[in-house]
Structure formats: C-alpha cells, structure tokens
UniProtKB/TrEMBL annotation:
InterPro entries, A to Z: Creatin/AminoP/Spt16_N (IPR029149), Creatinase/aminopeptidase-like (IPR036005), Creatinase_N (IPR000587), Pept_M24 (IPR000994), Pept_M24B (IPR033740), Peptidase_M24_C (IPR032416), X-Pro_aminopeptidase_P (IPR050422)
Domain Creatinase N-terminal: 21-152
Protein name: Aminopeptidase P family protein
Keywords: Aminopeptidase, Hydrolase, Metal-binding, Protease
UniProt source species: Rhodopseudomonas telluris
Pfam family for this entry, one: Peptidase_M24
Assigned EC number: 3.4.11.-
Length: 609
C-alpha cells in the first residue's frame, strides 16, 4: 500500500562475525607498535549523519547510534554511549568482547586513566577528533604515564577491506529564490566577523557553513543536503572551496567560480601551510575543525585561532526569503500530516497497522506533495513501550503492532527546497488511561508555555527551558532531553548554536527557528512528545522598556484532543489551543479532499469546559 524511499528498517550488520574485525584491528595495532586506538563516531567535520565510508564505529562494534566512541586496547575494549543509547548498545554490541561505558559522566578519559599502563602508546586519527577532544585524551594519557600518538593513516581503514568509497553526491545550486542573499553579500558579512576575530583567514570546516555561504546543496550524507567540502576565506582576496570536482556539473562549477577558486580537497593542507608560513592568524571552528588542521597551522608557523564558527550564528538567523520559504514548506507539510493523521485514526484502531506501516504511510503522503527531497531524519514511530525510547528507530525485528489502548508517538520531518520541517505528535489509539491524559496535559501545558513566551532581547534558551518543565516538575517527573534545537533552511534539522535547554547559552535572535518539544516517557509503558517549530519574532508590548520577542508557531497539525484533561488547562491555555486549531483548520482545510476535511473539522473543533 505504502512504501518508504528514504528510510530502511533492516537491522544493520545482523549476522556479521564482528569478533574477527576486532582481532584484525588488534593485529594491525600491534604491527604499528600501538597498544590501543580510539575510534570516534565521526567524520572529518563532526557531522551528525556520516557517509557509509565513515561508519568505522558501527563497522567495528555493531553499534549504530549517532553518538559514541570506542577504545580498543590489546587487553580489553569498551564502547562509550550516552543515556539515549544504553539499551540500543546492549542489544547491538557483543558484551563478551566489549564493555559498555558512559560517554558523558564519567567520560571515557576516566576509563582510559584506569586501563592504560605506563609506557602504553594510544593511537588516534587527528582528522577525526577536534583539538579539545585531543587535549582531553592527552591529559588522560599523561595521568596514566602513556603516550598519545597521532597516526598518519587510520588502522581501521587498513583492515576494512570492503569499505565503501567516499560519496560523490551531485552539487546543486540553492538559488536566490530560496537563499535570499547572494554569496558576495554573505562573504562581506563573514569578513566583518573575521575582522572582529582579528584573523587573517577563516577555515570553514563545517560543510553546512560552506553550503550556506556559497548557496549550494549536495547529497553526500543521509537526510541533510550536504556537499562534503571545506573553504578558506581570507580577509582580502577570493576564497577557495575545496571539493571533489566529480561532484560539480558545469553550471555548479560556474556558480562557485563567480565568487571563489575551486580546488580539490587534497589542496587544503598545502594552502593552509602556505598561508601559515607567513605567520598568519587563521580562525578555526572549535566544534568541527579537525585537530589535524590545528597541527598543520602550528607546524607551518601560523597561529590557529580556535573559537565559535561565526557562520553558525549568521546562518541561524533566517532572512525574509528563507522565512517565507519555511512558512510555505510547513503549510505543504501540514497537508501531508493531516492526511496521515486521518489515516491513522481510521486504520490503527483495527489493530492491523505496525510502526513500519506508519512510517511508510507518512513518507508516502509527503512524497505526494511532489516537493519532498528527503526525510530530515529517520522517522521515530514508537507505539506502547517503544514510544518510551526517546531515539527509537523501528527495525523489522523491533516492529510492533499498533493496538487499541496504545499511544503512538511519531516524530518526523521533511526536507523541501524551501524549508526543513520537524514535528512530533502523540496519538491515542482507542481509550487512553487517566495517567496518559494527565501526563499528556502536563506536556501540553509546557509546550503552550513556550509557544506563548514573551521575552526580552538577549534571552537564552536556558532561561526559557524551565517553562516547558514546570508542570511535569509539579508531579515529580521530567524529561531527559533538551526542550528545543535550532533548525536549518533546507539544511540540518539539528542546527546550532541556539537551543532551548539547560545548556542553551546563545541568545535567541529574531529569525531563528527552534523546536518546542517537551515530553514524558514511562519506561516499558508509553512515550509522549508534542513538537512544533517556532520562529523568533518581534513582540510589541505596550510600555516596554526594551525590545521584546515572542514565538510564531510554524507547524500546523492537530494536537490530539482525546488526550487532554480539560480541567487541568487554564483559560488562557485553552484559548491558545482553540486559536491554534482554528488556524490549522483555516490554512490546511482548503487543500484536503472531502473526507479528510471532515476529519480535520472534528480534530480541530473548539474545546469547551
């Protein structure tokens, strides 16, 4: 009936004898006179999604989560994951060969201090770690009396005989009708920031920054239209883009050459060395720049300036064209969501649908728009106990039937050329329990508190985060993820530097797009999350003594009325919900067929006490 084109449901590497891979790596380390080696889950640019050729951690250990690290020693080995992936790692990793340890508290460095011996030589690939990560490893080795060794080539690659080739996704031009600003204008703004940093040049080590600056997109990694590439922007003169020429059509090359020189990736190191040899101060993004770049600059006599990438903040503040595009993308997405939610309401209570059926149906409705380029991340479709796993990804093995009495949590997003979406809805299948309604309503009240927030210029996400949690805290419960992340414009669905979380220290600026997604998760029972995307906009407040901001909700999809305990809502919260549903009805209804219009009318009907 439906099918997914952009997602798979297979259990990765099932049946592969991973023990032989660990043995082969140990033999290679012994040949190189190394006692151990650090294997991060990263590529050269610390991307969230990495190409198959960069999945070294998954190839070696079987663990496929988006964050993790492994350490192989001649005696002992460990995989380090955060709290999101503890259950997943235990299922995917051979615990007879690997210990599963914390990635956060305590960090891997504590494990290294305890397991390294004096005189040990611990290897690492300087292209896969940031300089700050290397400094932490260096400290751990020093405490153990061991030596940290930068390798010239990765020992995993030496024994990974079937390693896929690096990706060669075609580069496309992101035209002015989507970007809203020319490359030349963006470069002028970047050079202003470079002047404030007192730098002679800036390395763009984040492919998102390259894509935004030069108005290009690509197809090198899943779910994010990235062209893997670097750029070097001097304070004077033309920048250089370092990208595999096989990705460039004649028109894409012509587009780039209007503002930049185009060179192969292998030319980056010589270009940096030549500039550094003049004593230049070269700015690097501390979050994405490989330690190898810092080493190149230092060794050639230059001064590396490590700090925040100035492009990240420029990119996060969307211009009027990007804002108009994302509004259009969300309206388009809303039609697909309404069709999907109506389908679930009609079919799920019969007990015949599965989690995979839900994923395939939603992607199919989005493809019917004719504008879908990809999903923005693998859809999280969790029913019953699977919904309580925050980053659950359904596989053929874990696939669960959606049954009456369940809650279905579906978190999904789309990539359209004019915008990126991300939305979560929790759906009652049959009659919800009183506990489900209580927890859902507490989550909803927190969601509404963020949506209605009014805050002065300079407010950070950390200052708003409590608003989303207050009603959960009153019941002695909480959720263990951030309340919201930044979202790109036909780029990453998880974009910095701003976020709504305890760690969100970047001030929110008008034009930023952030998610609003409080939740609640009862282990082995159910999960609840309500997520809309919000645009930071100006708020006129009578008598205000400073500029004020608020959120404009971009996402347009009904919130399940059956899960709301009306007695728990204040009059203002109820008014917000009814106004939101009236807006959904007005903007989405004209684009639906008759039966779906009737469903939407019922799903968005005003609630009254």
């Amino acid at each position: 009936m439906f099918e997914a084109h952009f997602q798979t449901f297979e259990d990765p590497e099932s049946g592969v004898a991973l023990g032989a891979r660990l043995s082969a790596v140990r033999e290679e380390l012994a040949r190189r006179k190394l006692t151990g080696f650090v294997v991060p889950r990263s590529d050269q640019q610390q991307n969230e999604y990495v190409a198959p050729s960069e999945e070294r951690l998954a190839w070696l250990t079987g663990f496929t989560g988006s964050a993790g690290l492994a350490v192989v020693l001649s005696q002992g080995a460990a995989v380090f994951v955060d709290g999101r992936y503890t259950l997943q790692a235990a299922k995917q990793v051979d615990t007879a060969a690997w210990a599963i340890e914390s990635l956060v508290e305590p960090p891997p460095e504590r494990w290294l201090e305890a397991h390294l011996q004096a005189g040990d030589r611990l290897g690492f690939d300087p292209w896969l770690h940031t300089s700050s990560a290397v400094e932490r490893l260096q400290s751990a080795c020093a405490k153990a009396g061991a030596e940290l060794v930068a390798v010239d080539s990765n020992p995993i690659d030496a024994v990974w005989s079937e390693r896929p080739a690096p990706p060669l996704g075609a580069v496309s031009i992101h035209g002015a009708e989507f970007s809203g600003e020319s490359e030349a204008a963006k470069l002028d703004r970047i050079r202003e920031e470079l002047g404030r940093l007192k730098g002679d040049a800036l390395v763009l080590s984040d492919s998102h920054a390259v894509a935004w600056t030069f108005n290009i997109r690509g197809a090198d990694v899943s779910h994010t239209p990235l062209p893997l590439s670097y750029a070097l922007v001097p304070k004077d003169g033309r920048p250089t883009i370092f990208i595999d020429a096989r990705k460039l059509s004649n028109s894409a090359r012509d587009h780039l050459e209007q503002t930049a020189e185009v060179a192969e990736p292998s030319a980056l190191a010589p270009a940096l060395q030549a500039m550094a040899a003049t004593g230049a101060a070269i700015a690097l993004d501390s979050a994405t720049a490989a330690d190898a770049l810092t080493r190149l600059i230092k060794n050639a006599g230059g001064k590396p300036l490590r700090g925040a990438d100035p492009v990240a903040l420029l990119k996060a503040v969307k211009n009027e064209v990007e804002i108009a595009g994302t509004r259009t993308a969300h309206q388009r997405d809303a039609v697909a969501l309404a069709r999907f939610l109506a389908f679930i309401d009609a079919e799920a209570p019969k007990g015949t649908l599965t989690e995979i059926d839900a994923v395939e149906a939603l992607e199919s409705f989005r493809r019917d728009t004719g504008a879908l380029k990809d999903v923005s991340f693998p859809t999280i479709s969790g029913t019953g106990p699977n919904g309580a796993i925050v980053h659950y990804r359904v596989t053929r093995k874990s696939n669960r039937r959606i049954q009456p009495g369940d809650l279905l949590l579906i978190d999904s997003g789309a990539q359209y050329r004019d915008g990126t979406t991300d939305v979560t809805r929790t759906i009652a299948i049959g009659e919800p329990t009183a506990e489900m309604r209580d927890r859902f309503t507490r989550v909803l009240r927190g969601h509404i508190a963020i949506a209605r927030a009014v805050f002065p210029d300079g407010t950070t996400g950390a200052q708003l985060d409590t608003l989303a949690r207050q009603f959960l805290w009153q019941a002695g419960i909480d959720f263990e993820h951030g309340t919201g992340h930044g979202v790109g414009s036909y780029l990453s669905v998880h974009e910095g530097p701003a976020r709504i979380s305890k760690l969100g220290t970047t001030p929110l600026k008008r034009g930023m797009i952030l998610s609003n997604e409080p939740g609640y998760y009862k282990t082995d029972a159910f999960g609840i999350r309500i997520e809309n995307l919000e645009l930071v906009v100006e708020k006129l407040v009578e008598g205000a003594e400073k500029p004020m901001n608020a959120f404009e909700t971009l996402t347009l999809a009904p919130i399940d009325r059956r899960l709301i305990d009306l007695d728990m809502l204040s009059q203002k919260e109820l008014a917000w919900l009814n106004a939101y549903h009236a807006r959904v009805r007005a903007e989405v209804r004209p684009h639906l067929d008759g039966p779906t219009q009737l469903w939407l009318d019922a799903a968005t009907a005003p609630l009254e006490r």
